[in-house]
Amino acid sequence: MGFTRPFVLFFASLWCLPLFAIAQPSPGTPPTELPLMPMPASVERQAGELLLNGQFKVQLTGYTEPRLERARERFFARLTGETGILFGIEPVDAPADTPALTIHTQTHSDPVQKLGEDESYRLVVTPEGAQITATNPLGVLHGLQTFLQLVHITPQGFSVPAVTIDDKPRFPWRGLMIDTGRHFIPLPVILRDLDGMEAAKLNVFHWHLSEDQGFRAESRIFPLLQQKGSNGQYYTQQQMREVIDYARDRGIRVVPEFDMPAHAQSWLVGYPQLGSGKGPYEIETTFGVLDGAIDPTRESTYLFINRFLGEMTALFPDAYFHIGGDECNGKEWDANPRIQQFMRFHKFKDDAALQAYFTARVQKLVAAHGKIMEGWDEVLQPDTPKQVVIQSWRGRDSLFDAARRGYRALLSNGYYIDLNQPASEHYLVDPLEGIADKLTPAQAANILGGEATIWSEYVSGETIDSRIWPRTAAIAERFWSPENVRDLDSMYTRLDAFTDRLPAWGIDTRATTENMLERMSGSSDPKALRVLASVVQPPKGYGRGGLRHYFTYTPLNHLVDAVPPESDTARDFSAIANRIAAGNGTQADWEQARQWLTLWRGNDHALAPTLDRSEITAELAPLSSNLSQVAEIGLNALLVLESRQPPTAAEQAQWMEVLKGAEKPQAVLALPIVQPVEALVEATGKRLR
Fold this sequence. Notes:
Helix content is 43%, strand content 13%. It is α/β, with parallel strands linked by helices. Among the domains are: 16-167, Chitobiase, domain 2 (2-Layer Sandwich); 207-233 and 260-318 and 326-374, Alpha-Beta Barrel (TIM Barrel), CATH 3.20.20; 510-686, no CATH class. The strands form 3 sheets. It has an 8-stranded parallel beta sheet with strand order 12-9-8-17-16-15-14-13. Strands 1, 2, 3, 4, 5, 6 and 7 form a 7-stranded mixed beta sheet that branches. Strands 10-11 form a two-stranded antiparallel sheet. The longest helix is centred in the C-terminal third of the chain and has 23 residues, at 621-643. The two termini are 40 Å apart.
């Protein structure tokens, strides 16, 4: 996650640990220092290491199938990438006792992966060899990912520590939703994010395929959906089948979402007869909750939807089918006299009642095609059939209400990774926290898990990886690991290790940032811009849209797009500054704080002359100046704290005024080091008087 953190030094420090057995972790303590994410249910460390060399082999025993053969090939490819050793070619003269990973699979998994299938596995590593045992191929896939995360460098070469791991997920539904409607995401990006999902043991790819801004799935029955509703950016049916097959090979279900009745303007461009308004309709280029909505009062609407569902449910084999159902503002319904007459005739008191009518009819169509309907909070009504699955974007109160009433549900509130919250905030959101003790065991079992969601207003195929990863791995741990695995320091240490391995899956968020900085600066070594980038963040929440107006065609090539949602450097500096402010700073803390603040103070002098090369960088001038001023104040505060000579009230007030000004975003970017510097300034008054 940091721009220049050395891989080898990190792992050297990580693995210089005593060998001891590790029991179930207690709350609030690091569960283990093994760089595993998600943390397994049970880990017992043993003495010794299994050394890896080119003769290392993988043997499949018990049940086998082509999917396991392909998993072995991917495993060898990843292992070669981790070590530089060519694996998978067994020498003719290899000795009989060559170290091996033996995989024993008891039986097959279901032909179409199902919710709740057994995903458990056991991994035992000794200095002589290793074994993965699992009920079915799903457990094997997870065990192979755990083995790969254990590979590290030692003085003797690459090895895996001796360990016994018994593992299974806490929740059966562990998903990632990617919105490909607002901005189209190219197929290779989808495939590599599926690889990342496999590494994080996520098992549901929720594919959001339609939005006001684009209809992204090829329909052969209604071809105008993509021909007029996508600007030519959509997935062919062959490509969608490729994604489904690719995901199944990695133990991932694919659940499609076609949003209705709202967020559906792209449907109406080619088929305006579906709409509730006068039209004509165009592909939307702005974002937000828009007015276009499908007409729920015409029988022709349901004939269309039924034929469309028949085509798409045949294409997507999963048992679940998501129909959206969120954020219908009803304005087109309210403005349509015929729809208002329909509502009066049926005694629908409001738009919510009309939507409930629409949802109930669509649910019957989905069921008639052999699928289980899933939808957002809004689809839950008093008479909603109990088999419908509710996805909650509103929060735990809605989740609790659904589970209490006997509906299966999953949580996404708290896991909106497009809102640029730090990994720590997502990590501490638990689907059952605060409500488990209010539910019966049967009701609590209705909470299936959750999904991280990436809405695509402000991402492109180039930048989406850095918004999904690595924070989604922390969310994946919440869904997989025991609920008492909550230590933030341990999580961040292991998240760094996970990030170091992402390039093996083609996901290199650090390289993407560096490439964008080079492009923005016109330099192959943008040192000063890199320094600025390391301590800024996009604004949290929904603030970005209020700072600049965006369209679907707005280039996403500015610094706000290049930097990750969370600055590692700023987070580390904040921890150091807070220790110093509290009087608990070590000598190393003081030295590191001075070093960073000195670097930041002088960076504007190096960066400012280069910023006028383009408008992309020119907008950074106020931000760069703010960094320099904030750093200067931080150095002054350190000097005061060290000399124990308190500042005058006027000096402190002046410092705080500058800092408050620097809190305001510049170039759609926040400067997160301001608050820790404020803590240092406040300490000069509190501690020295």
